[in-house]
TrEMBL record:
Pfam families: DUF2063. It comes from Pseudohongiella spirulinae. It comes from the Bacteria. This is Putative DNA-binding domain-containing protein. InterPro entries: DUF2063. Residues 7-102 form the Putative DNA-binding domain.
């Protein structure tokens, strides 16, 4: 084995959660002995320290998930995750980019719908924060449209916002968690509250966005969710109005659609 291969082997033994005893013969062949420790035990110190550092960094990226699960359960989730998705070169914010999909497929954590929504929301907050600044479409540009242009107008969306739906009141849970985190004696996994289910039939819709380089999310009504989803899909204004009329037949669609469009512009969600 040449030097490059030895370095790669060393890196793999450090960065992948594993039982190093399975590679004890290879380790023994390529490393010098230590007076007090076996070679496997010595390398295990590096392996453990590396992953504990990653878990610490991830807990700062996902503080709500961390304090929801507690240190031991959270560490188990991340060790399972890192075994399949080891870090790749780039910003540390990419550390958990595959965490939502991994958690959904996990035999244990995939059966906890509130936790899955918490992970998804926290992942979006991380991802959207790093998006590039973009100019926003304005009311002045809307006023410049001629009546003939309105039906076929499509809008591009900015990259610093997203939508999600949940059966849980995430706004209330986030507020409770922020109060918990502000306590000097706060202990991960030891809260007196939990994410409350809205109902089996209903869902809450959330707009997650970056505002002045700070992340926030807010609950939006079903009409706004339908409207923003349509814009993201590239629907024309006429198509948006048609969709609203099908889902909200008792409302005045001309007034509703204009109201939703102005709200979208004021939130600076459209790309100029």
């Amino acid at each position: 084995m040449n030097w490059r291969d030895e370095q790669q082997a060393f890196w793999n033994w450090i960065t992948r959660p594993q039982n190093l005893q399975d590679s004890s013969q290879q380790i023994d062949d390529h490393f010098l002995p230590h007076r007090a420790l076996s070679k496997v035990d010595a390398l295990g110190i590096y392996n453990n320290a590396y992953h504990q550092r990653l878990i610490q960094i991830s807990s700062e990226l996902y503080p709500v998930t961390y304090h929801t699960l507690g240190h031991d359960v959270y560490s188990r989730l991340w060790l399972d995750y890192l075994a399949q998705h080891p870090p790749r070169p780039g910003p540390m914010s990419l550390l958990g980019e595959q965490l939502p999909s991994f958690a959904r497929q996990h035999a244990q954590f995939g059966r906890l719908p509130a936790l899955l929504d918490i992970i998804e929301l926290e992942n979006l907050l991380i991802h959207l924060f790093d998006q590039a600044d973009e100019p926003a479409w304005t009311r002045a540009q809307l006023q410049a449209l001629t009546p003939e242009q309105w039906p076929d107008t499509r809008w591009r969306v900015k990259s610093d916002w997203a939508l999600m739906s949940s059966q849980f009141d995430l706004e209330k849970y986030w507020s409770q968690m922020q109060l918990h985190l502000a306590r000097p004696d706060a202990r991960p996994g030891e809260t007196e509250f939990a994410a409350e289910r809205i109902s089996d039939a209903d869902q809450a819709h959330y707009l997650i966005r970056r505002v002045n380089h700070r992340m926030q999310f807010q609950r939006i009504n079903p009409a706004m969710m339908l409207f923003l989803t349509g814009i993201r899909e590239g629907q024309t204004f006429a198509m948006l109005c048609e969709s609203l009329s099908q889902h909200f037949p008792d409302q005045e669609i001309a007034s509703l659609s204009l109201q939703l469009l102005l709200k979208t512009i004021d939130l600076e969600l459209l790309y100029a």
